[in-house]
Each structure stands twice: as C-alpha cells, then as structure tokens.
Amino acid sequence: MTKFKYASTLKKIMLAVVAFACFSCVNQKDDAPKKIAVVISTLNNPWFVVLGESAVERAGELGYEATIFDSQNNTSKEAEHFENLIAAGYSAVLFNPTDSEGSVSNVKRAKQAGVSVFCMDREVNSLDAATSQIISDSFSGCVELGEYFVRQLNKKGKYVELLGLVGDNNTWNRSKGFHSVVDHFPELKMVAQQSADFDRSKAMEVLESILQSNPDINAVFCGNDAMAMGAYQALIAAEKADNVMVFGFDGADDVMNAIADKKIAATVMQSPKHMARIAAELADQYLKGKRDFSAKTPLAVQVVTKENINEFGTFGSKN
Q1: Which of 198, 117, 119, 191 is nearest to 159 (CA)?
Q2: CA–CA distance from 141 to each of 300, 302, 313, 316 (Å)?
Q3: Buried b / exposed e across 98-109, counting CB within 10 Å, b at 16+?
Q4: pLDDT per position in the chain (319 positions), as tens?
Q5: Which of 26, 28, 60, 158 is the most buried if burial means most Cβ atoms within 10 Å?
Q6: Spatial separation of the C-alpha atoms in residues 90 and 35, rounded to whole Å
Q7: Of 283, 312, 271, 302, nearest in space to 50 by CA
C-alpha cells in the first residue's frame, strides 16, 4: 500500500471513530435521565428535610435525577438556585418557597425558560406562575384546632400566639383559621402576638420575653411544631410547663412524642411525605405531556391530640 493510500485509509478510520464517538455522546445525552430540582426553603427544620428527601426519593423512583437545593430561608439564595438550575438544564422544580411574594419572580423566570414549577407546602401569590401548588388546607386545620383549643381552655383564659414567617401565606392562613373560631369567645384574651419565623430557638427567646410581662398565661398557639417545642422549652425554664398548654402545627416527631407524654396539647398533622410524592408525580405527568393542572391542589389535614395520638405516626396517619 502506498503512503498516500495508507494515509487516506487511516484518515477515514479516524473520521469514522470520531463520528461514532460523537454519535455515542449524543445517544448518551438523549438517554440520560431528565433532572428535577428540589428547592427547599430551609433544611434547618426536620419537616422540610422530610419534604425534600421524600421529593427526591419519589422523583428517583419515577426515573429522574433529583437534587436538593437549600435556600436557607433567604430569597436571594433561592434566586441563585433558580439561575443555576435553569442554566444546568433541569426540566422541572419541586419548590418550597421562602416568601409568597418574593418568590414569584423566581417561578416566572423558570416558566419563561420552559422549566415547570410545582410548589409544595408554601404557595406563591400568583395563580399562573407555577404549574400547580400542592398545599395543606391550613385554614380548615386551624379551624378544627381552634375548636379544640376553646374546649381545652373552657372558653376563657389568656394566650399568646407565635406567628411564623410574615411573608408566608401559611402563617396567615393558620392564624386566620384559628381566630375565625377563638375570637367568638370574649373571655379568651390574646395578650401577645409575635413572629418567631417558624424557628425553635427564636420561639423560645420570644416567649421568654413575653412571659416577663405576661406571667399568667394559660396557653400558647404556635404556627408550627418547631415553635411549639421552643415555646415548651421557654415554659420549662420559667417553671410553667405544667400550667400552660401548647398547640402546634405539622406533626413533627418531637411534638408527637410530647403529645403522647401529655406535655403538649395538640398539633395539626400534615404529611410532607404525601405532599412531596404528589408533587413529584405531577411533575412526571407534566414531563410526559399532560398540561391541564389545577392551579392549587389542597390536601386535608387532621388535628392530633392525646385522645387520638395512637392513630398517627411521624408526619402522617398510620393508615
């Protein structure tokens, strides 16, 4: 074989190898699983950890590559996550917002980039930004909790309300549901209402301060279980835990144990596992072509007390 023919043949072989390699790369890219981002407001709360991990688990079961992003309760950090996940080619977002108003722009940015967003637990103040919003019926749950609260206090007494994040709709839906019942009883007096940002340590500090000027309270209504545990710690430090009833919302493990031990009066059970699984399944349906989704997908919740505690496990009903 002449040198010219040898070089020509070698060149053809090399081109064929390169073409095959490129073809393989394209096929690998086409065959690679689509990516779903799970953006969580904060992982400094067991409830949200379960929400995020459950979303990743279900997305994985459905064949997607899923990654958790922690916004650390910071809307700016959340915005960075959205910029990065859009650039990285994620196909959908299972989203737990940091702020009902401040998070709208992030959802709209994803929508414009062709990335579907499914809100979990917390909602954004827009009905056309997210593909769907999967939320607990916080208002109705706290109506039922308010009724139990009234019965436990025999329709009279002084109480404190610890609010969650002021920019979160759940904070106000829970508060409004509670007050829609309790405010009809004039002998039930709210002596203080203050935000503790859904945070256990802050709730303890806030209630310790309130107790200095209101040492004779009978109950504390908390917008989530993390604050309920913080309030309970403050009551222990003040030697008032046996005389003040604490009410929460979530169904967290430590509060469920405290209800069983008759240390905390009640909570409202919402299941982050169930919510996350539904969000992942809706995202899967979207990525497979479905487009007719309800703007909001509400999920029922249940009040948990010492009377029915045996019917529940951590973050959900045993049934």
Answers
A1: 191
A2: 8, 6, 18, 14
A3: bbbebbbebbbb
A4: 444 444 454 444 444 444 444 444 434 345 678 999 999 999 998 899 999 999 999 999 999 999 999 999 999 999 999 999 999 999 999 999 999 999 999 999 999 999 999 999 999 999 999 999 999 999 999 999 999 999 999 999 999 999 999 989 999 999 999 999 999 999 999 999 999 999 999 999 999 999 999 999 999 999 999 999 999 999 999 999 999 999 999 999 899 999 999 999 999 999 899 999 999 999 999 999 999 999 998 898 999 999 999 998 767 765 5
A5: 158
A6: 5
A7: 271
- Distances, alpha carbon 213 to alpha carbons 44, 124, 216, 217, 220, in Å: 30, 37, 9, 10, 15
In eight-state DSSP terms, residue 292 is -
Whole-angstrom Cα distance, residue 93 to residue 235? Answer: 40
